[in-house]
Amino acid sequence: MVDLKFKLKFLWGSLVLLTILSTSTLAANRPPQLSPIGSKEILVGETLSFSLSAIDPDQDQIIFAGSGLPANSFLNPKTGLFSWTPEINQLGTYLFTFTARDNGSPRLSASETVPVRVVYRLAQQQKAWGLGLKETETIAETSSITDLYPKIKKIEIDGRAFSPSQTVFYTSENPKIKIQATSPYHIDKDAISVLLDGEKTEISPFSDVQTFGEEKKILSLTFMLSPKDLSLGKHILNLEIGNELGFSAQSLTLDVGKLRIVDKPLVFPVPFTPSPGKELNLQYSLSKNAEIEIYIVSSSGEIVKRLSASEGEEGGKEGLNKVGWDGKSEWGNYVGNGIYIATIISKADRDVLGKIKLVIY
């Protein structure tokens, strides 16, 4: 800015500019310089605290401000002191913009956008009850609140694992359902809901409970359902498990019907070489207890061996079964090399439940 000073002289009836006496220049206002802050990371429940620092080349007064700041944070506009103690529901990554503004003319400013990551960590310098971890180990770390929701880790029905990709699970009239839930934060026992066909279902006392810290927060637990005398047809089971942050849900369909093999029957080892002390294992899962017969048939159609299992015993029990065969025929000799078929039959109605290919070599 240029300041001009003039000397004026009046003549008769006129105004005449005679001389420019002097000139001076006023310096333009310059913005403040904000010291770099850099990204920050803070654990839930701990306090993030730092001071903003700025200098003004014109010695103007500086006022600090911030945008995008949480309601429970504090920024002193004069000293630049910022502090924040994030709560558990404030997990995530934030972008805070801090500004230093002078009082010059015009008012100028400098800003920096600072990434701040809020982390939940379980748990250094503590020991998880029942988990056998040393004090310096970390069990879990996340900045996503949904990671802290309880999750249904495993569902077993009559000893068979349920996969979320399954739409229907074949079972008996009296299934035994085992459910395991986990959370790196906490499971609220009172936030567990089990509905079968829309009706609240009784669950067993909790078992395998793993807790953490002085508050004994529950990280894992297991419980059982044992519905009785389900009618033939499909039944909808809805599970919800939660805590104060949120919940997870799982829905599955139980199909109660006639005796059947569920999942794919397996055989091992393949190939099998009969010899003393060796055994071939047939593995299959039944939807209910039943008397079972297994015919092992050669490629020529000859029945070389008959195996049987009583209802409720290994080979004829609801759930997973393993039946062994030593490779000997009905006549006590080892069968020859070749392809054989093991046919699994319901003794009560002679229905063929499944077939397994055997390789003897």
Summing up helix and strand content along with how strands pair, one would put the structural category as: mainly beta
Q: Using only CA atoms, what is the Rg?
A: 39 Å
Helix content: under 10%
Any idea what the CATH architecture of the largest domain is?
Sandwich
Helices, by number, come to 0
CATH class bucket of the largest domain: Mainly Beta
Beta strand count: 29
Predict the CATH topology of the largest domain: Immunoglobulin-like
Ends distance: 102 Å
Main beta sheet:
5 strands, mixed
Mean pLDDT: 89
Beta-sheet strand percentage? Answer: over 45%
Silhouette: elongated
The H/E string reads: EEEEEEEEEEEEEEEEEEEEEEEEEEEEE
Which stretches are poorly predicted, pLDDT < 50 over at least 5 residues? 10-22
The CATH superfamily of the largest domain is identified as Immunoglobulins
Number of domains: 3
GO molecular function: calcium ion binding
InterPro entries: Cadherin-like_sf (IPR015919), Ig-like_fold (IPR013783)
Signal peptide: 1-27
Protein name: FlgD Ig-like domain-containing protein
Brief synopsis:
The chain has 361 residues and is mainly beta.
Notes on the structure:
The protein has 361 residues and is an all-beta fold. It has 3 domains: 89 residues, Immunoglobulins (Immunoglobulin-like); 110 residues, Immunoglobulins (Immunoglobulin-like); 100 residues, Immunoglobulin-like (Sandwich), CATH 2.60.40.4070. It contains no helices and 29 strands. Strands 4, 7, 10, 11 and 12 form a 5-stranded mixed sheet that branches. Strands 14-13-16-20-19 form a 5-stranded antiparallel sheet, with no helix packed on it. Strands 15-22-21-17-18 form a 5-stranded mixed sheet, with no helix packed on it. A hairpin with a 2-residue loop joins β1 and β2. The radius of gyration is 39 Å and the shape is elongated. The relative contact order is 0.10. About 4% of the residues have low confidence.
